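Handout, tutorial session.
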Amino acid sequence: MDFDSFRQLGFIVMVALAVGGLLLTVLYPYFSGAKKAEKRVKAVVSDGKAPVKPGLRARLMAEDPKDARRKQIQESLHQQAGLGISPRTFYLFAFMLGLFIGLGVLVTGVPWYVAIVAAIAGFFGLPRWILKFLRRRRQQVFLNDFADAIDIMVRGLKSGLPVIDAMKVIASETPAPVGPEFLEIVEGQRIGISIDQGIERMYERMPLAEVNFLAIVMAIQSKSGGNLSEALNNLSKVLRDRKKMKGKIRSMSQEAKSSAAIIGSLPFVIIGGLTILSPAYLNPLWDTTVGNIMVIGSGIWMCLGILVMRKMINFHF
């Protein structure tokens, strides 16, 4: 395979990554339902009333949107994804990644505006996708060990240990991220933070329904009393049943995911095979303006199809 063939193949890959990252950044909130949820929350909060214009003091004391955004990214990096980097480092990494992708696309010989689109997609889309991937992976590891941690707490309570001592056992014996999360609760006790407040903070760092269940159980027990070990034992059974149900759903949807992966990779496999077997066959796509437009249009429609298939096979439970 000569250099021109490699350049053409690289052009396909770079354009697909650029367009896919850009579309994922722009269209993901609409496919994931985040926009609809945001509208519902605004409708409930507003309750049909006209918004009240804040006074001068309120506007001066209000938090800067840039600071709020920076704080949100800081919490997402440190708490949910488990990364010990600052937002400035994250933005620097995103800038270097976008610059690298843009230069890589430009080296392949494509027009400069395509390289700019690729750089923008590399700056805005790919780093956030990596951040979401790390956050989901950390949450999955947390869920795998969370039910065992509740069982440790149940056994500790049945043997006569206080709740905070049972949590100390979890913090010292359970691997990350479950152990460090319970360690935050134990450390908070030393500065006057109650267990209920500590679990609420855990839910902010790990926004999962299972953590919310624990917060509800602890809040009800602290206000109304009752057998905490029995309530936590029932919670452990619920968590394990939910884990089994997730495994069943994942196994049942694996066939659809495999089909989507085959359909999504088939055009690239065919183009790669034709480039190796008959390089001149695809030259009109790279050497003519109409061919370039067809490639870009096909890439856009393919990315839209991948997003639609992802929405169809991605189950939230």
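The second record follows below. Compare its token runs with those of the first.
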Amino acid sequence: MFAVLKHYGMQVDFSVPSPDFLVTTDGGMNIEATVALHAQGAPPERSERRAEDIPKDLNELNRQTILRIRNSIDTKHKKYSKLYASLDHVRNRPFVLAITAFDSPYARLACQRASEAVVYGYYVDEERFLKEGETLQGQRLTSVRKDNLSEVPLAVFGREEFSWLSAVIFSSCASWGKVRALSSDPNPNIFFEAVRLNTSGVMPHVVRAKKSAYSESLLDGLRVYHNPSATHKLDVKAFRHLDVFQSYFSEGDAEWMYDQRDGLLLYRSVITGIPRQATSGNPAASSSL
């Protein structure tokens, strides 16, 4: 997040201990960074990724991630009420949460679906599309159930108690893979697979390339969701960039607006091949990956 702020030329005042970033540029804002972690007893994101553990149902994967993201926002809501709201540098400034989800070994597969359900109650059932092949379209999702069957309401931006929250910044690509993509590592055996937005159809652009032929920017994958009911709204121009997705309600046009372009990064994975050492019993092994 700090690298992103520097990229935009925003000044950060680190003389205050919290929230994480007090931005003083252009009227300023406060940004608190957090992650959605695994539930107690569930396998953490750092667990070994086995092929047999790949989620069999995207809706169940998304349900779990929705609950974890909502839990993280609720935790920050309590902290805002008890601490942040009383701070002089927080009053009368937009307050933003920067969130990403590391709640399971395959959390990155949820991409933006879970975060959009939490903040807007907007959900796209990709599992149904894969099985039935119907038109891929969004739907209203008002709540999800916990394992104990209790209902957790969604669309926090439509709830009065979250009017303190100006926007949510989200990225499923803010991971070690981002570091690999931006690094100057000369290893010729680094391979990238990226899924990018196709504005002309439901099937995305898929990019597969070695690192030497792969390109990704620091801002690729960043998404900014604005709260139309916020007490202090975040200026839509603050994070506007060709590589950044934004959604916000335009009062003048009385409609939702979306900043997006063909090719926006949605998902990325990285594989590093390790050449096998040639052995006397297998002379061809040195050419295998």
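Points raised in discussion: The first strand starts at residue 12 and ends at 13.
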